[in-house]
Amino acid sequence: MKISRGYNKRGRNQWLQSRIYNMYDNKSKRSLTPIDFESIENEKENVLPLRAGRSARGLTEALQQSATTKCQIRANFERRLIDDLGNMADPLELYLEYIDWISLAYPQSGTTKKNGLLDIVERCLIHFKDNEQYKNDARYLKIWLWYNELFFANERREQRDIFIFLLRMSIGFKLTKFYQAFSDLLVDMKRYDEAYQVLKRGIENQATPVNEMLDSLQNFEDQILEKRINIDDNFSIEEQFSEATAPLILGRQRSEIITPDQQPTENDNDTSESSKNEKMSIFMDSQSQGSSKLYFYNDEESQFMDLKSNKTKENKIAPVALEANTNIGILSQGIRPSIPVEKAIVFKDEIGRADPVYEIVEELGRKPERIECNFKLIYPNKIEEYSIEEILARSRGIYHKMETSGRIPSEDVEDFHPAKRIKT
Amino acid sequence: MAFFSTSNSNQGTSSTAATEADLANDIVLNNPAEDSISDIAFSPQQDFIFSVSSWDGKVRIWDVQGGVAQGRSQYEHAGPVLSTRWSNDGSKVASGGCDNIVKLFDVASGQSQQIGMHDAPVKAVRFVNCGPSNTECLVTGSWDKSIKYWDMRQPQAISTVIMPDRVYTMDSKQQLLVVGTAERHIAIINLNNPGSIFKTTLSPLKWQTRVVSCYNEGDGYAIGSIEGRCAIRYVDDEMQKKSGFSFKCHRQNNPNRTAGSQQSLVYPVNSIAFHPIYGTFATAGGDGCFHFWDKNHRHRLKAFPSLRSSIPVVNFNRNGSVFAYALSYDWHEGHMGNRPDYANVIRLHPTRDDEVKEKKKR
Q: In A, which residues are within 8 Å of B336 by CB distance?
């Protein structure tokens, strides 16, 4: 019983999902009660599709589970992480179980804050990053790849940085999967030289499965040949990855923009002034050396991986504790002190452009028609009509008023004079 | 027509929708006048000579023999010129305009003379053969609510016929003269009896008459109105019942409307011209499009893309091999629609049979 939605891309994290439904298939054998599709029906738009599909039974259960139960299960996992982790032969297993459960229990989304998935995944990744046992564990690598895909979906630069970090930490350096994923990303970014070197590195390191590794290099070379892209054979990724990752800000090196001594003082003055205006405060790192922690390229810092929340800290508003027993009074709703500002003068056309120069004619049973003629001129009132040429002649003052008729009021004629200035 | 470039690979396309590539071989006269163009008329004796009247108060005679436009001569009115036509022998050009004066220009001598006068601007001039004796004379229609016949020698009109309202448009073929006036009146005159109106009717179209044009056979006329409609009419009542109809043209879907609402932008039909040989006709409008139609089979032969500038007037030359169209502001939106950079252009389009010849029913 699977509800699956179409996916064509290769499933990097298929293993994870297959684990999920296997687990629940076992359960379904246990209980033979029919599945309540009603609850799925109501929620189906909210369920995040997975590559491998979902177990319908698992889904109904997850949807019917109360928040309290979920909290209990979560607390249970957390306790086990503290108590049992040290005693387990395969501690990764516990994390995997936890992650599995989260992605099942919160089908609505993989990335919302509520389910804490990001937190647990990052905890898992950091916990094992120095563990020799898991350096080349396919499951561990796949969490990395999954993390990359799920939380940095549209941030290729970030993804690349994470891959470079993995390369430095030699996580997955014996696994073909790693080189494939990395080179795919680089090809996506059109960094063909790097992709080629990454694949070559994989062959050098005798990544397994060896055949698959050779295949992907072959495929890549075929692709390159087909697209007629020239590859620089002597390209060094070492250089590239250590230099290119040095952050460029608007295409310039950070050091070119900020000199460490001038930055803090200026910053202080600015904040005091800008706070008056209560406008958006611009985040600045307090220390220039502190900010470099974000990146993986320095040797002593290569051991450090920044959490996603830390990477996006600029976008957060720091919470401020409310003092007890204080009354802050009525919150003023968006009333700002009015600052006298000179408004820009809006140009108004004096010629009378505001009048529509078309007429919408509607007839029953027919499409409304918008006639692109100035009906105000053609039919100035109910009993008169003038042709376009007459209007033009009048506007130029050459329409000789017929003595007998006297139908055209003279002030009307003056109204049309501006045209004379436009067209001569 | 060797001087129209024939390198166009699109020759012989059978689609009814033409592209701008189909217009690539047109001869372009940039700035043939200093103001909007009001009328174009070809010489009945020459393929490539035509006169152009303009709001700048001048009538210019152009010659495109050899593919390059050359101004032959020009003469002036005291006000904007609204209409021009050639005499049957191709020796004279008549014109009328906002100075109320009817002028006759002798092409050979280059002299122009005033041959008549109205009480209001002269909107249309036509050469006609009147009466049982088939004498050639000039007929002029004016906003003074009359048409006048001139024998071109005397300053007095031979005959004046009072019209129901101001004359907005007028056309003649063979013994048929049709006058379209304000308030949608249509006056039909049999030129065997030019002094009186044979019949008056109301235009079947709801809004102001913009143009009338007679069939080559002289048995009927087409009316174009400001609201993007054409009526195909016959003088004979029986024939009218059988073959008369009206159709919509010069419309575009309003691009600024949401998808649900179906509102079309409607433009005035400024000019209708009949092909002198095939009897098919062209309409041109304020939307900058011109189309070729076949009234007998009631279908469109060719639709051309918009040229982004309204077309005030179109005409065929004497054998229909050249189709001239003017691009200049037609004032359909009043002076608000005008721009200082509105170009005045005349383009000459070499017609192909698949564009203007009626298609035999399969």
A: 351-353, 355, 357, 374
